[in-house]
Structures are given as C-alpha cells and as structure tokens.
Design brief:
Length: 140
C-alpha cells in the first residue's frame, strides 16, 4: 500500500501518480512558497518591488483587461444596440436588471474570457454607447 510522501499515512489511490493527500499537497506547496520567499528575498527586493516592475505589470494588466473587454463586446454584437455606433472607446455595458451590478463588477478582474462566459450570464448584459446609456438611466 502506498503512503503519503508528506505525512507517511496510507493513501487511497485515485490516480496512477498520486503521492500526497490533497491537504498534505497544499501544506507542502505553502511550505515550498514560504521557503522560496525566504531564500529569494534579495531577488524580490531588487526586481519585484521596483517601480519599473510595477509599471510594466500595470501596463500588462491594463492591456489584458482591455483585450477581455473588447472580446466580450464583440461576443455581444460589437455595437450599441440603440444607435449602432461601433467605436469600442465609447461602448459600455448596461445591466438589464439593475440589481445585478455588483455581481458583474468583477467581470474584467478574471483573466480568462472562457471563464467569464461560464460564470456570468451575459444575456443579462447589453452593449450601449455612453450617450445612450446616460439617456436610458436619465429617463428612468
């Protein structure tokens, strides 16, 4: 019978290459990460915590967020449903049911569009240009 490589207790094998219990694997990974941070503090202070790194990361995240936004706009038609304008700079998302706004607030915090499409019901969201969106909310 196989034993866990971390705690030494017997394993109930569910796969061919299982070496750890699930909880033991998480503990092992956390210890590995702490050990890495302890051994690489000099690297972290020289590279990761520099302003240059933070600026590059900010730019990378912004471009990725914009790419996800454009992909979702294209999946929803790519144009304002009222006036038909197609300029992505002025297109915004309108939540048909206003109570769902908080649910969709982190829509672009996710990194993968396919995950966004699974988690969020995009039939509750429509694309409007900024002017049509303001007119719609003002008229309510």
């Amino acid at each position: 019978m196989a034993t866990c490589a971390f705690c030494g207790k017997p394993l109930i094998k569910t796969g061919n290459y299982q070496k750890y219990h699930r909880a033991c694997f998480k503990l092992k990974e956390n210890l590995r990460k702490k050990e890495w941070k302890k051994n690489h503090q000099e690297y972290m202070y020289q590279y990761i915590r520099t302003d240059e790194y933070r600026k590059r990361k900010r730019v990378r995240n912004k471009t990725a967020r914009e790419k996800r936004r454009l992909d979702i706009i294209n999946r929803l038609g790519g144009a304002c449903i009222k006036c038909g304008i197609q300029d992505p700079r002025v297109l915004v998302f309108h939540h048909k049911n206003g109570n769902d706004v908080r649910y969709y607030d982190d829509l672009f915090k996710s990194r993968r569009v396919d995950w966004i499409l699974c988690k969020y019901d995009l039939s509750k969201v429509e694309v409007l240009c900024a002017n049509c969106h303001l007119i719609l909310h003002y008229s309510k």
